[in-house]
Amino acid sequence: MSDAKRRTLADLQRAVGLQVDDEGLLSELASGLADVEATLRDVVHSDVQFVNDAAVHLVDAGGKRFRPLFTLLAGQFGGKDREKVVIAAAAVELVHLATLYHDDVMDEATMRRGAQSVNARWDNAIAILTGDFLFAHASRLVSDLGTDPARIIAETFSELVTGQMRETAGPRDGDDPIEHYLSVIAQKTGSLIATSGRFGGMLSGARDEHVESLRQFGETIGAAFQISDDIIDIASPSDELGKAQGTDLREGIRTLPMLYAMSDDKANSRLMELLAAPLTEDADVAEALGLLRDSSGLEHARETLTDYARRARSELATLPASPARDACESVTDYLAARTH
Question: What is the pTM of this model?
Fold first, then answer.
């Protein structure tokens, strides 16, 4: 394995907590990710320079690449059709990138992965259309893999959009806010990671029960990542986050620790007042963060995260012992540890 590939893979491992001790698996993952990157750039290329610049903007910005990495890992449980697994890995990353273009418009974001967001560099219309452009190319890639993968990616699109719509609308009258939140993150975050595992397994020829375990693991670990991020946004100082604390508070987004705190009959009345609307003043954000850290909500969210990590690990128990399974297990350990 080249030094460049090793450094790239090491950076990705640190970002998602993946621990790979087997040199052969490391080499295969590094080679697979290099092929995914090449596929991404080839697929989104356009002879129209303006379209090309917008399309490669987030590809060049990098990111965790967890979804293609998990697709490649899941492909280890079958061991066949490596080319198809790489294509699927590139497709799920294209879908993820497309959702980021759309998310930045909805969030009115100005930065993404340390670079200026497309909506800020150009405008909202270009960002939305570029996201659509990436969705189209993801669909084209998957169509070459067969009817079942094409159906699965269409169903995944539906889950992603439904989750986003439900989050935007909020819980309806009579809905439990916590159950609503957990089901939304299963759709918004868990569904695409579930499809990553499913694609890797089925396209590599893994047994049906192993494909299902990989799908379930992906959905659960995807939701766990979101819960973990919710906790860190409150519990970690800005210098560790690499961004301002309390982003969700500033945007008026009620994350799991907040919802648990609000469901506590003994909740601090000042905290309830602060959580009633987006916070624009730094002093109010700092006060809310302090009250949340002292509330039952943060610890309750950590307990839920631990349960999700346990459930994810239990899905892996049905898979054959291998370096790939060990690598997946390491992610569950990392998720629980990163919030303490």
Answer: 0.90
3-state SS record for 61-124: HCCCCHHHHHHHHHHHHCCCCHHHHHHHHHHHHHHHHHHHHHHHHHHCCCEECCEECHHHHCCH
Q: Judge whether 214 and 198 are in contact, CB under 8 Å.
A: yes
Cα 177 from chain centroid (whole Å): 22
Residue 239: per-residue pLDDT: 46
Over residues 52-68, the pLDDT tens digits come to 777 777 677 767 889 99
CB count in 10 Å sphere of residue 30: 22
The closest of 197, 228, 184 to 332, measured between CA atoms, is 228
Q: Which fold has domain 3-337?
A: Farnesyl Diphosphate Synthase (1.10.600)
- pLDDT tens for 157-196 read 999 999 999 988 899 999 999 999 999 999 999 999 999 9
Domain boundaries, the chain: 3-337
Q: What single-letter DSSP state applies at residue 338?
A: T
Q: What percent of the chain has pLDDT over 90?
A: 62
